[in-house]
Design a protein that fits this description.
By secondary structure, the protein is of the alpha/beta class. It has helices spanning 44-51, 95-106, 110-123, 138-150, 168-179, 194-200, 218-222, 243-252, 267-276; strands at residues 4-15, 18-29, 33-37, 59-64, 67-69, 80-83, 156-160, 186-191, 203-208, 211-217, 231-236, 256-262. It folds into two domains: 4-229 and 265-276, Rossmann fold (3-Layer(aba) Sandwich), CATH 3.40.50; 230-263, no CATH class. A six-stranded mixed beta sheet has the order 6-7-8-3-9-10, with helices on both faces. Strands 2-1-4-5 form a four-stranded antiparallel beta sheet, with helices on one face. Helix 5 links the parallel strand 7 (156-160) and strand 8 (186-191). The mean pLDDT is 89. The structure holds adenosine-5'-triphosphate (ATP).
Length: 280
């Protein structure tokens, strides 16, 4: 069995004269939380659609859980769940009802679905929530959407822009939910919110003009950025101090320096550097 949940080689997609994917290479290791990042029109959705057999490739290969994709028609790959950016949940259902429906649609036996529902509601932070989906916040709806995608216990969960439509608190909750899947489910999600990816992902792939410009464990990708020349010092002070007092405190008050070191490049820095610099 390959240790890759998804791999693409030379994946190309043309719409008439327009090249949406231009020889994309991509490797999503099993067990990774993989952030697929790129600006609008970079080719993220096209890649996910080909992986899900919702679109055909023009050339190249793509394999999902060991099964080749890229031509149509093709049956769904067992063990893969997909959540679009705005989950289509019926507003009149309660959260357990939405999960039961998702279980039925995925072909999960009813008793298995019913046994999974309490844990999934708890994972999604919805265990104590009553009422119907129509009354949920966007964040709650998104978390329920992720829970519905997990009802079949997929090996690979693919999400398109899961945090883009959410406010900061909603985003934080969804990111925590995705982070909690680490080690249990391979997660591949597209995003243009680089801070989100930096917070929860183990691996990252940067797509630009339909090609991968950087990919790998997040620390390796961050290491590709130039030094910022900035330094960070974290202090613990005895009480609230003015800036001047903080500076004095360093010398005079025996402040406890928790950590100090060079501030590395952020994903945002690496992305801007690679895309503006025309990296190959
Ligand atoms: N059905 C289509 N017909 C023609 N062009 C298309 C079609 N679908 C996508 N494209 C083009 O292919 C390119 C890649 O689009 P894609 O939706 O994959 O980008 P994306 O990275 O997902 O962007 P976004 O973040 O805006 O969703 C874009 O230039 C888009 O206009």
């Amino acid at each position: 069995m390959s240790d890759l949940a998804l791999s693409a080689t030379g994946l190309t997609k043309r719409y008439g004269e327009h090249t949406a994917l231009d020889g994309l290479n991509m490797s999503v290791p099993r067990g990774a939380i993989y952030g697929f990042i790129g600006s609008n029109g970079a080719g993220k959705t096209t890649t996910l659609r080909i992986a899900l057999s919702l679109a055909a490739a023009t050339s190249g290969t793509i394999t999902v859980l060991g099964i080749e994709r890229g031509t149509l028609p093709a049956p769904a790959v067992r063990g893969v769940s997909y959540l679009p950016d705005v989950p289509g949940l019926y507003p009149w259902l309660t959260a357990p009802e939405a999960l039961r429906l998702a279980g039925d649609i995925s072909g999960t036996p009813r008793d298995v679905t019913d046994a999974r529902i309490p844990a999934l509601l708890s994972t999604a932070g919805l265990a104590r929530v009553r009422g119907r989906v129509g009354g949920f916040s966007r964040g709650m709806t998104q978390r329920l959407g992720i829970a519905t995608a997990l009802i079949s216990a997929p090996e690979l969960l693919i999400l398109d822009e899961p945090t883009s439509a959410l406010d900061p608190l909603g985003r934080a909750d969804v990111l925590a939910l995705l982070a909690s899947l680490r080690g249990k489910t391979t997660v591949l999600f597209s995003s243009h919110l680089l801070a989100d990816v930096e917070r929860v992902c183990t691996h990252v792939g940067m797509i630009h003009n339909g090609a991968m410009i950087a990919e790998g464990p997040i620390a390796d990708v961050l290491a590709r950025g130039s030094a910022t020349g900035e330094y960070e010092v974290r202090l613990r002070l005895p009480g609230p101090e003015s800036e001047g007092a903080i500076r004095d405190a360093l010398a005079a008050q025996g402040a406890d320096i928790v950590s100090a070191g060079a501030v590395g490049a952020s994903l945002q820095d690496v992305y801007v550097e690679l895309t503006r610099g025309g990296a190959a």
